[in-house]
Structures
1.
Amino acid sequence: MTGVRAPPAARAIVRGDRRALARAITAVENGSPEADPILRALYPNTGRAPIVGFTGPLGVGKSSLINALVGHLRESGRTVGVIAVDPSSPFSGGSVLGDRIRFSRRADDDGVFFRSMASRGAVGGVAGTTREVARLLDAAGFDLVLVETVGSGQVDIAIRDIATTRVVVLVPHLGDEVQTLKAGLFEIADVFCVNKSDLPGSEAAQRDLMELVSLGPKHAEYRIPIVRTSTFQPSGLTELWAAVESHEAYLDRSGERTTGERARLTQEIVGRVRDRVGVELAARLERDATLRHLIDQVVARTLDPRSAAERLYRGRSARR
Amino acid sequence: MPSKAKTAPIRVLIAKPGLDGHDRGAKVVARALRDAGMEVIYAGLRQTPEEIVRAALEEDVDLIGLSILSGAHMALFPKILALLKKEHAGRIPVFAGGIIPDEDARRLKKAGIRAIFGPGTTLDEIVRTAQGLARPAR
Ligand SMILES: Nc1nc2c(ncn2[C@@H]2O[C@H](COP(=O)(O)OP(=O)(O)OP(=O)(O)O)[C@@H](O)[C@H]2O)c(=O)[nH]1
Ligand SMILES: [Mg+2]
């Protein structure tokens, strides 16, 4: 942390104050002004915990798996922060966050912190602030951060920008689903998990995935593991975690941890500037008569949108 | 960055303490609160008071709603209120719904449960009360 100027909340979080952590998460989610100095002060304390994303269609058992893995990790003494994202209603903006139902930890275990998040209109399976909430958990000292995406039935692509290891969870007899997922699957998956292996058909699903993996982009050093699990008749959980760790080890061995992190952070910075410029432009378009005239021309079909955007862009940079 | 804090949704925890295995009512309330724009953390069945309080603090909720049919409310609700107080979170308003006799309801309100809804309450009334309880708390 950057010493004396760190806000008390940031220092409290590093000390392990769970209330301070919970409140800071809310501030980050809400875009409150107090979030800024906290995130700034804590940033040097982040980038340490592996961030493991769990994505996959509705109801495949992501929450149940996370619950089981947390049990497994706690047994070996590791501390875990969990973020579970569910969709916000496009109509009311409200949300029912139900992932906590599957979570069964002892209430006095301070080695775990579970937070539900609504996507708040963001597409891609996580909220716009999930990455920063993961950072808070990292800075709070949790050894691992697990993130469950919305699981909309499509590939939750945004987890790519957050997680160091992505686990794609599927279940037996998901034939058609896998076909539609296929396009994005390999950009996402570092580990495949066939859950509900207590149900028939999981070996076949594993074989299908093996075939897909062998057709996918070839990595000389890393082959996507396909693990069968069941949380009902607990099995495969040790193997699943071993697969996650083998990917984390690969990241270090190959240097991909550094390049991946650099790419993600570049994306984040560019995204922030883009958002900021977008907000600024929209505001100027409203109050600046010259700019309104530009839009009038586009509406009247005397100027095309590309040229208008070009002028707008140049005008913006000229005024700086 | 423009502050969006004004429009921050109310976060509410809906939990069912006790052993009864039926949560239809709680789910209906959860959906009604969602439709009113709230973020409802649904913690599910058979939660101990300790689990409920822990969930409320981790989720940093503005409000807690408890649903109970088992008759154990006189033991469980005051326990939850006491635990909240112990965690310096006594300001989080708690409301309750379920089958709670009038005399018990009076005593629970005295103990600090802010609103109690019987089986006949409309969802509209629950939503409005919940909004009223959550607002001043922030
Ligand atoms: N047969 C079987 N059912 C399972 C297993 N794991 C989870 N389930 C069940 O699958 C259902 C969904 O489980 P969740 O853990 O909530 O799944 P999820 O992927 O988190 O669901 P969403 O968050 O709603 O997308 C529940 O009814 C679980 O009990 C398993 O290993 N075997
Ligand atoms: Mg889930």
2.
Amino acid sequence: MNEIFKKPLYPYRRSTDQDGIYQAHHPVVIIGAGPVGLCAAIDLAQRGIKILVIDENDKVSFGSRAICFAKRTLEICDRLGISDKLIAKGVQWNLGKVFFDDRQVYEFNLLSEDAHRQPAFINLQQYYLEVYLVERILELQNAGAKIDIRGETSLSEINQTSKSVQLGLDTPDGLYEITADWVIACDGANSPTRAMLGLDFAGRVFEDNFLIADVRMEADFPTERWFWFDPPFNKGKSALLHKQPDGVWRIDLQLGWNIDKKEEKKPKNVIPRLKAMLGEDVNFELEWVSIYTFECRRMEDFLHGRIIFAGDSAHQVSPFGARGANSGIQDVDNLCWKLAEVVCKRAPASLLQTYNIERVLGADENILNSTRSTEFITPKSGISRLFRDAVLELAENQTFARPLVNSGRLSLPIQYGVNRTFGPDNLDGPKVASPGSPCPDAIIAPETFLLESLSQGFTLLNINQVPKVHIIECGSTLTHLNVKASPDENTFLLKRYLGDQKMAIYLIRPDQHIAARWAKFDETAIRNSIRTSLGYNG
Amino acid sequence: MTRLNLDPNIKNADGFYARLLAAHEGLSKADSDSLNARLILILANHIGDLATLEEAISIAER
Ligand SMILES: Cc1cc2nc3c(=O)[nH]c(=O)nc-3n(C[C@H](O)[C@H](O)[C@H](O)COP(=O)(O)OP(=O)(O)OC[C@H]3O[C@@H](n4cnc5c(N)ncnc54)[C@H](O)[C@@H]3O)c2cc1C
């Protein structure tokens, strides 16, 4: 077994909270140190908030699970200080091949966009992401950040009043209790927090099973994503082969509904299946095997009083399209600055409602996309299969049919659009940079990217104009970023932010989303938009 | 605004109809179904416009 699965990252140590006379109180407690909980801890700690993270375990998640991390996730991870590590270790690929029956029907190339610091996506085992996040937490701790991460500490009870949350924690030394102002439940798809509160988690189960295996092999398969519909080695079903670092390959094999999961998971049954796929003479070693039934579901609300749900605890999607961890990290991106503003009393608690609204929209979009991919990959009726196969047959010779082939869609961030918290849009500018969109990256000066130049708080991006007014609104200082855009200097900034306009002002939220934009600097309007973003005008 | 042309539009109606049936001649039910599916996809792509397609689907559903 891979050593990484055995190594305790944050071993249990008795905390002073267990010996105090009074119950210890924490401003923010995060339940679960999966990718989402760890990202939330870092984001909040970077904003100066004291954080306690608890996890029933003290190691990385067993097996690899998530492998595809999309550009927006990498951009967020850059803000959190780990994207360089992810990219150095991750595998970058852009060629995908689609096979139907015994032949290749087409291939596609997902090139990264020009003038973006981060690639379109990388493949990396989830456990590396978790290790790097824990390393980042240690780095922040050494720099004085107040993050406490407690292993082998599981939530056993949770209750709340309008004023605080009471938590019962179980450890090798027995139970203790603490209180908190806010709790973020990042405790995964089976969320004990959700269960203890008796909350809903409605959705849909796909009546199918998938064998997911990570194998180590020295094979000369290229660094590409191969997807098979109805291949000879898995008749009537689908298969996927995808590369990860360290010579590890991810294999997904559809097994069907009526199977004996326990039996299928045994190496004596798994190995022949893999050999049929990879070739009899390929030597491989099984790193991890599991069998999944996929589900798409979400909680109706992600915000329950002082308890906030994020990641898989709030929503679950089938893995086609790689949206689970990617969307959970976008939850964190959306939530943490808001929670920090609320904790620091610079915004009303009602601001958190916008997290609920925005991320429910995000979850719905992900569920929609995953459901559509699942329908295409595993058609649920005769007619669905008929059309699916017709698309695949046509795709071989007709380019028009290729966009209809859906073997999983790349996870893209949601565009929230102008609504209660985003706007106004007072610039006749490009759509990619309209309010509610995540800022598209661009080069703003030699070797300087836009996203890395944004501040932790609100930024005013001033293009081809230099307002001299210093703005502090509701305790938040607005950072000015003055840039010049011209056709010969930075065409992408021009293309993405100006279009036909000569100048522009963009108000950018702490989560790098565009709050509002104008043609000209207008202090009153800007102040008002900051207040709207902070939930004062709702 | 209606975009879908629902006026008689095929010059040689009988000829088209015969060609459509000829394409299915001798095919099994499964192969005929596949042919129809491919044909729908090809024609839908030619139309392209979602609103027009939506209109066509709802007329077919009636
Ligand atoms: C086969 C497969 C492939 C996938 N591929 C992708 C992909 O390519 N891209 C992608 O983005 N996503 C992918 N996903 C989804 C991704 O793995 C999840 O979305 C992600 O792990 C969710 O992170 P999380 O932090 O919300 O929850 P988890 O990772 O489940 O973490 C929850 C944490 O809570 C802890 N916990 C649970 N109960 C308690 C308790 N009572 N007290 C304290 N702690 C507790 C657990 O120990 C765990 O550490 C895939 C998933 C699977 C299964």
